[in-house]
Write a sequence for this structure.
């Protein structure tokens, strides 16, 4: 189990792995994540399940190398085994026909967004995906996203792909143009905060998938806690998705710096 | 034969009669209780993994065993939740047959080396010893002797290879690998069942591994017990969450005829006071998991852990004592226990409190935190404590702490570890439809059979009791094994 079947670079720092995990492939739904540990002294880190193939018994994860543990994982090759892999964790995304859904994904947040885009489309929604990244190289999965989107808007900080601007610029252009029933946002906490502020202004219900620091991922430690609507929630079991307008993003941003 | 008759029979063996008469009861009663050999407090408060209690020597054990009066009506046994045949094992130590002592323990307890170390003896067996009940003296050191006998067997390598039982081919699943799950697995495997234990984490052992630190319960001891289970054919599947990775239906489809749920009470409670989400405030579970399961204080480990200089632990149970003593070992210059009641109500084992005090831990009893404050970066700086006094007894019979109006105090801290209890893990109750659950989230069982409302699904340990003890969890595992076996052997 946990053998890496395929490895593909999306950019020098972003890697896609297809991993053997038959039980997880069978039971997971859009929005679920896994906890991965590389090596005996490795750290447990959470990663969203981007895709799965129950027949082949595989799951797909997309990892951005940002620190020690994600780098260790990115250094593994086809045929290697991931020491520990557990899941599916968290609550699945609530999917229904809302009407028009804007999916705003930033950086590596595009990977966890993909299964949601697919499920939203299959549920009959009009899906407009806004993908944002610093530059062209960091825009990942554009083709796969396009497959399930009615429209894809790409935003880059430097204009090297799509339009020059922030994710919020892309989302706002859609809101100004047509009625949006739901916004889903996944990406760096700071990005989700600003998307949330924007959609709040327009009163558009918004769901965000939070990426807090975790240890066990099963509700045992509380490392992942955030304040939602004034109450403490554990992202790994109560989430990872929450009503963005109720999330205390400033506290979350602060807590992400606990070990840096 | 009833248990009483069996105990009487063993007591009337000729050697035992002779041994009893060899020293006068009065003389036994005058002997002083043995002292445990311990590491020096200053030394050990920097040693994360060195076990504090060093065990008794053979001579000490025999001498302590000679204090036991081998009572005709041994009240100590009534204090033990699994009714270990205490005088029989102790008299075997006195006559020097340490292996027979260990064998006696194993008739009832699956993990004597563990229980001898972590049982709250002063509230259980030792509290009922005639020495304390009738003679006003210190009780026989039953826990120390239990540990001695179990360790002797393990360390002297003369353990017969466990017999591999004849398989009956019936598949049984266990959810969780804590003491309840392990003792159940052992008993069922010995009866010939095909046992698979599913564990959510990447290590087997439950709280014995991720919670209780090595300075109190070395991993070797747990690993030894796991090895025995491996040898008798128990299968362990790590990183598998029942209810998530595989469902109840999956288990049934795979032909499991019985399921024992021992998923523990792992969810930490917080107090919901201002500042509790500051960086530096964490649950005892998080702190202990990082240090014990993830080995975070080892430079080779990738998992970080904060090493506070001024650390407060909120609460005074075993978990709190483990956390505060761990913080001390990681370098805390000031390490305190903040507890809203008084010394007497502290739920922790007496020995842990004593050891903590020796290690320089401060006890701020009758204090309760009401607010935390941090710096501009959200890092904890100080806590506000409310002073308390004891009022009328509450429903639990303990005197209720009430705030003394206006009496508050700020204390500088850079780390606070919250240890105010745990709740049952909701995963199984929420994914096994049809289970009856109390308002506290514990699973309801039939007390005689340990079976839940779902036929074939049994439960025990902390998921049924809320936070309890190792010995109770272990006892539940054994009782459930006996009940499930009798039910399955009727059907098959
Ligand atoms: C539910 C969930 C799903 C996730 N899905 C994915 C995914 O599909 N792909 C992916 O690449 N990452 C994902 N993440 C984030 C990923 O877990 C972190 O990037 C990883 O834990 C960082 O570990 P590290 O040791 O490599 O970096 P560290 O050395 O721990 O950190 C390096 C830098 O990253 C920041 N950081 C640390 N933890 C996180 C975090 N949880 N989120 C954001 N920034 C963080 C730190 O502040 C620091 O600046 C997810 C997180 C959660 C909670
Ligand atoms: C720090 C600490 C110190 C303690 N000190 C003492 C002491 O000195 N003396 C004493 O008697 N007691 C002590 N206790 C209490 C004692 O450890 C517990 O009462 C006992 O461990 C309960 O055993 P259990 O088998 O019910 O559950 P646990 O030991 O909690 O084991 C449950 C296991 O199930 C796993 N699990 C949960 N859900 C699932 C699932 N869905 N699928 C698969 N696996 C799952 C968990 O990961 C865990 O490994 C202490 C507890 C703690 C936390
Ligand atoms: S198991 Fe615990 S309570 Fe029972 S005799 Fe041993 S130490 Fe005492
Ligand atoms: S009550 Fe005390 S003295 Fe009597 S048998 Fe038990 S341990 Fe021995
Ligand atoms: S990661 Fe431990 S409780 Fe969420």
């Amino acid at each position: 189990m946990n053998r890496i079947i395929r490895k593909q670079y999306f950019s020098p720092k972003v890697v896609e792995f297809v991993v053997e995990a038959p039980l997880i492939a069978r039971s997971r739904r859009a929005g679920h994540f896994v906890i991965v540990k590389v090596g005996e002294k490795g750290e447990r880190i959470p990663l969203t399940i981007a895709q799965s193939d129950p027949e082949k018994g595989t799951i797909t994860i997309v990892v951005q190398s940002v620190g020690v543990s994600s780098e260790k994982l990115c250094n593994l090759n086809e045929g290697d085994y991931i020491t520990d892999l557990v899941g599916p964790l968290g609550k699945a995304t609530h999917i229904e026909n809302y009407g028009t859904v804007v999916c705003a994904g930033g950086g590596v947040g595009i990977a966890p967004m993909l299964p949601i885009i697919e499920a939203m489309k299959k549920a009959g929604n009009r899906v407009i995906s806004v993908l944002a990244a610093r530059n062209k190289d960091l825009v990942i999965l554009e083709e796969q996203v396009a497959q399930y989107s009615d429209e894809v808007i790409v935003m880059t900080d430097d204009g090297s792909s799509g339009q020059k601007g922030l994710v919020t610029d892309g989302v706002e252009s859609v809101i100004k143009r047509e009625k949006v029933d739901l916004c889903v946002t996944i990406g760096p906490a700071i990005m989700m905060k600003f998307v949330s502020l924007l959609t709040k202004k327009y009163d558009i219900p918004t769901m965000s998938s939070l990426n807090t620091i975790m240890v066990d991922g099963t509700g045992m430690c509380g490392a992942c806690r955030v304040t939602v609507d004034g109450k403490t929630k554990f992202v790994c079991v109560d989430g990872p998705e929450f009503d963005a307008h109720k999330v205390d993003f400033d506290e979350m941003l602060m807590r992400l710096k606990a070990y840096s | 034969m009833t248990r009483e008759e069996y105990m009487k029979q063993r007591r009337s063996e000729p050697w035992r009669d002779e041994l009893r008469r060899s020293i006068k009861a009065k003389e036994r009663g005058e002997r002083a209780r043995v002292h445990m050999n311990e590491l020096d407090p200053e030394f050990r408060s920097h040693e994360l993994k060195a076990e504090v209690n060093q065990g008794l020597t053979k001579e000490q054990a025999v001498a302590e065993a000679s204090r036991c009066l081998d009572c005709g009506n041994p009240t100590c046994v009534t204090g033990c939740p699994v009714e270990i045949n205490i005088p029989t094992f102790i008299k075997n130590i006195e006559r020097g047959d340490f292996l027979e002592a260990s064998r006696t323990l194993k008739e009832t307890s699956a993990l004597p080396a563990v229980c001898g170390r972590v049982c709250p003896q002063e509230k259980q067996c030792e509290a009922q010893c005639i020495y304390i009940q009738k003679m006003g003296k210190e009780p026989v050191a039953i826990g120390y002797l239990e540990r001695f006998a179990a360790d002797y067997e393990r360390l002297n390598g003369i353990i017969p290879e466990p017999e591999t039982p004849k398989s009956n081919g019936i598949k049984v699943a266990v959810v969780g690998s804590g003491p309840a799950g392990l003792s159940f697995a052992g008993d069922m495997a010995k009866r010939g069942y095909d046992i698979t234990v599913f564990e959510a984490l990447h290590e087997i052992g439950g709280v014995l591994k991720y919670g209780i630190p090595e300075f109190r319960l070395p991993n070797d001891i747990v690993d030894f017990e796991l090895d025995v289970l491996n040898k008798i054919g128990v299968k362990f599947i790590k990183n598998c969450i029942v209810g998530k990775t595989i469902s109840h239906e999956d288990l049934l489809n795979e032909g499991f005829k019985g399921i024992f749920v021992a998923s523990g009470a792992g969810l930490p409670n917080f107090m919901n006071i201002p500042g509790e989400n500051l960086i530096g405030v964490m649950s005892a579970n998080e702190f202990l998991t990082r240090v014990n399961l993830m080995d975070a204080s080892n430079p080779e480990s990738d998992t970080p852990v904060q090493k506070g200089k001024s650390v407060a632990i909120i609460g005074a149970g075993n978990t709190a004592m483990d956390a505060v003593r761990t913080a001390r070992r990681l370098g805390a210059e000031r390490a305190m226990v903040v507890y809203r009641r008084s010394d007497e109500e502290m739920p922790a084992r007496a020995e842990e409190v004593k050891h903590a005090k020796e290690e320089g831990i401060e006890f701020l009893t009758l204090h309760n935190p009401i607010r935390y404050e941090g710096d501009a970066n959200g890092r904890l700086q100080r806590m506000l404590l409310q002073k308390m006094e004891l009022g009328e007894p509450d429903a639990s019979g303990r005197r209720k702490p009430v705030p003394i109006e206006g009496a508050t105090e700020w204390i500088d801290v850079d780390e606070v570890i919250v240890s105010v209890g745990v709740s049952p893990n909701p995963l199984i109750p929420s994914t096994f439809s049809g289970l009856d659950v109390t308002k506290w989230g514990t699973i309801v069982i039939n007390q005689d059979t340990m079976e839940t409302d779902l036929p074939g699904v049994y439960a025990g340990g902390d998921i049924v009791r809320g936070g309890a003890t190792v010995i109770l969890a272990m006892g539940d595992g054994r009782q459930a094994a006996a009940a499930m076996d009798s039910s399955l052997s009727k059907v098959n």
Observations:
- The first strand of chain A starts at residue 4 and ends at 11.
- The CA atoms of residues 72 and 111 of chain A lie 19 Å apart.
- The radius of gyration of chain A is 17 Å.
